[in-house]
Design brief:
By secondary structure, the chain is mainly α. A three-stranded antiparallel sheet has the order 1-3-2. The radius of gyration is 18 Å and the shape is globular. The protein starts with a helix and ends in a 22-residue tail after the last helix. The relative contact order is 0.12.
């Protein structure tokens, strides 16, 4: 049976791998192994293979290294995105499970941040907030499209010494009636 995209994307190890490619980064398996030292090499390669077969990761380059070929991987943003069709295939219980996993991953990232030396949330631009807006369906679509434009503009920034990789997660939930 073919695994659904949501199951592929939200697998604990695969999601951690995917996060290393956010922002347009490209990496080899060796580089990923250094970034994710707690993942066994066999597991890392197996999950990379799953992500490539699902077209979520693509091979952007192949370099000959001492008689073997080293692959460079990149994120296929279109395939790594969840569509409304993907969401329609999920039961209420699965939505709760996926949302719980998503928020658990956010918590793990935040905990990792707090464990570093010299935490300064203001300097580092770390925040978590919730606000409410009154928006019609059309206003919500317009608001979301404006957010997409802002995200797309920021996503074209190339890494440099003045820039830090920052994760921005969004959750939009209507108030229950």
């Amino acid at each position: 049976m073919k695994e659904r995209k949501m199951d592929i994307l939200l697998h604990p190890v695969r999601l951690r791998i995917i996060q290393k490619f956010l922002g347009g980064d490209e990496k080899t398996a060796k580089e990923l192994a250094k970034l994710l030292p707690d993942i066994a090499q066999a597991t890392l390669y197996r999950q990379l293979d799953t992500l490539v077969k699902a077209n979520i990761l693509i091979i952007t380059e192949e370099k000959p290294i001492r008689g073997t070929i080293e692959k460079v991987y990149g994120l296929n943003l279109m395939e790594a995105s969840v569509t409304s069709k993907d969401m329609d295939e999920i039961s209420k219980e699965e939505h709760i499970q996926y949302f719980m996993f998503f928020t658990t991953q956010l918590l793990a990232q935040f905990e990792s941040y707090l464990e570093k030396e010299n935490v300064d949330m203001e300097r580092d631009g770390v925040s978590y907030r919730q606000t409410a807006f009154y928006l019609s369906d059309e206003e919500l679509r317009d608001f979301f499209m404006e957010l997409v434009k802002v995200f797309q503009k920021a996503s074209t920034n190339n890494p440099n010494p003045d820039r830090k990789k920052r994760f921005i997660s969004t959750i939009i939930i209507p108030e229950s009636e």
